[in-house]
Design brief:
Blueprint (H helix, E strand, L loop, with lengths): L1 H33 L3 H58 L12 E2 L6 E2 L20
Antiparallel strand pairs: 1-2
Bound molecules: zinc ion.
């Protein structure tokens, strides 16, 4: 992205140089044609200035494009951070350690096999399902 900006900068300098060249050639033409024909000399000067206008306009537009590039780069960076955060969150969820082993303080019924388990146990004696205060109130 930074290289694009640099290339744009060089191109801009070339465009401005071309614009200046147009004016300079117009001025040279003005002095050259001054001895020949005053009308042609002014035509050359005016033509040189007018011809340089689109170059300056282009250079100005390139500034806008560079700003847009910068904005896009910023937005891309923000999006990247957001996706990174989201990815990090999902990673956290998947890599989160399992619930710590809970031990029942009283008799509890297994939700899977309906076995009544003794107090002080953390697994179902029949199917081995873990006791949880959330699912085994
Ligand atoms: Zn069970």
């Amino acid at each position: 992205m930074k290289q694009t900006g640099k290339r744009g900068g060089v191109l801009k300098k070339i465009i401005i140089a071309l614009a200046i060249l147009n004016i300079v050639s117009g001025v040279f033409g003005f002095f050259f044609l001054l001895s020949v024909n005053i009308f042609y000399s002014f035509l050359s000067l005016g033509g040189g200035i007018i011809a340089s206008v689109p170059y300056f306009a282009l250079a100005g537009a390139m500034d806008d494009i560079e700003v847009l590039y910068e904005e896009q780069r910023k937005l891309k960076g923000q999006l990247h951070i957001m996706t990174d955060l989201m990815y990090g969150q999902t990673q956290l969820q998947t890599t989160a350690p399992p619930f710590p082993k809970e031990t029942s303080r009283r008799v509890w019924e297994c939700v899977k096999c309906k076995t009544i388990n003794k107090a002080g146990t953390s697994d179902c004696s029949h199917c081995g399902a873990k006791y949880s205060s959330w699912i085994n109130p």
